[in-house]
Amino acid sequence: MRPKGVGVWGVCVVLWVWLAACGGTTPPDGGGPDAMAAMDAGEGSVSDREAPTWPEGAALGAVGGLDRVVFRWPEARDNVGVVGYRVRREGAPERVLTGDARSLVIDGLALDARVSLEVQALDAAGNASGVLRASGTATVPNPQQIAPPIGPFEGGPTARTARFLFEGEPPVQSGYVAGSIDDARIAVLRGRVVDRAGVPVRRLRVSIVGAPGLGFTLTRDDGR
């Protein structure tokens, strides 16, 4: 015998509330498991409203090579975790890189071609950081600007300290074929090209005769 004033529907509602508290799934409105899953997904997506941030003073760097521009950015921070970086290049489709990406190489460029890039950090909830922007130009790279730092006690054989010239990103010596340089015979040549009047010759191709695997470079504006 049911209590006075409590209908069967009221019992069902109370029963459903009890079942839900104990792990039941189907509410009296017929929402079903799919509706519950959607609610859970919605709660998960809005629970994190904090967007990733860049470190103070962060900037998007751009270094030009003979046929490319290399963009680099610092690691962004997030209260949960950065899952990707959204990159936008002018005139190209948007891309999302993995959360451990720190650089993007845009190659296949003609000399003097200029490209612009925007980068945003993303978290799993879809929050986006502020935008880092930079532009770069494909040009003859200056070794002094792209050489990796070497500490006072980090010297070593030329085979190790000079590899950035042909294996770096971007390389100064373009077109190098892996394995073409013998570590035991490596040497670094420095020079300057001028005409008869002593005026620097810019963008003169420099290569080794009979050794195409060693690649080539171009002289800079100062003839070096």
Task: Describe, in plain words, how this protein is organized in 3D.
The chain is 19% helix and 21% strand. The strands form 3 sheets. The protein has a 4-stranded antiparallel β-sheet, with no helix packed on it. The protein has a 3-stranded antiparallel β-sheet with strand order 1-2-5, with no helix packed on it. A two-stranded antiparallel ribbon has the order 8-9. The protein folds into 3 domains: 8-47, no CATH class; 61-137, Immunoglobulin-like (Sandwich); 140-224, no CATH class. Strand 1 and strand 2 (68-72) form a beta hairpin. Mean pLDDT is 80; it is low at 1-44. The radius of gyration is 30 Å and the shape is elongated. It has helices at residues 8-21, 32-47, 143-146, 158-161, 164-167, and strands spanning 61-64, 68-72, 82-89, 95-98, 103-107, 114-123, 132-137, 205-207, 216-218. The chain has 5 helices and 9 strands. It starts with 7 loop residues before the first helix and ends in a 6-residue tail after the last strand. By secondary structure, it is of the alpha+beta class.
User: How many individual helices?
Assistant: 5
- Indicate the overall shape: elongated
Distance between the termini: 101 Å
Main β-sheet: number of strands, strand sense, barrel status? 4 strands, antiparallel
Number of strands: 9
Whole-number total of structural domains? 3
Q: What portion of residues belong to β-strands?
A: 15-25%
Runs with pLDDT <50, length 5+? 1-44
Name the helicity range: 10-25%
Cα gyration radius (Å): 30 Å
Query: Whole-number average pLDDT?
Result: 80
The SSE order reads HHEEEEEEEHHHEE
Strand order within the widest beta sheet = 4-3-6-7
Structural class, from helix and strand content? alpha+beta
